[in-house]
Amino acid sequence: MKVLGIDPGLASCGWAVVEKLPNKEYELLSYGEIKTEKISANDDLSSRLKQIYKTLQKVIKKYKPDIVCLEEQFYSKIAKNMVNTYLAVGVVYLLCGMLGIDVKTFSAKTVKLAVTGYGSATKLQLKKMVKLLLKFQKEIKSEHINDAAAVALCYLNTEGIQQEYV
Q1: Per-residue pLDDT tens over the stretch 86-110
Q2: For domain 2-164, which CATH number applies: 1.10.10.10, 3.30.420.10, 1.20.120.530, 2.40.30.20?
Q3: CB 111 within 8 A of CB 73
Q4: CA distance 105 to 89
Q5: Residue 58 pLDDT more than 70?
Q6: Domains of the chain by residue range
Q7: Comparing C-alpha atoms, which of 134, 101, 114 is closest to residue 21?
Q8: How far apart are CA 160 and CA 109, in angstroms?
Q9: What is the dihedral of CA 125, 93, 26, 64, to 10 degrees?
Q10: Distance between CA atoms of 108 and 118, rounded to whole angstroms?
């Protein structure tokens, strides 16, 4: 089973494709970070969203994931940040809807629990577990990519197991 995990955001959108192998181990097939920068005050929001759409479309067409998983967004006091993040989430839902791929969301606490065994794990603990589970030699420096890989692992550690035995 292949899962595309996404840590959505307008300025930085992390993604990771993780596959569960028949021997119950995981393989990190690919990962990346889509960075869209606001260059000027007149920057077109639609061009930044288009960049996210096109990049994720290429990833989905190349790796053909069985499902796309997102980390649910928490509420912030800075409304503009949340609106921009939700616009990026909307792009993911639109793309998946057009390609016929299911989308599943998980809270940060659920992701931490499924990956580390502790729902209040720190970012560092989560990062170490992702590296351990993926048997990854080098460190994933981007927090957004690491979170995307964790979301994919969360699905494979919880929901994916249920589907295997049905």
Answers
A1: 999 999 999 999 999 999 999 999 9
A2: 3.30.420.10
A3: no
A4: 11
A5: yes
A6: 2-164
A7: 134
A8: 18
A9: -160
A10: 11
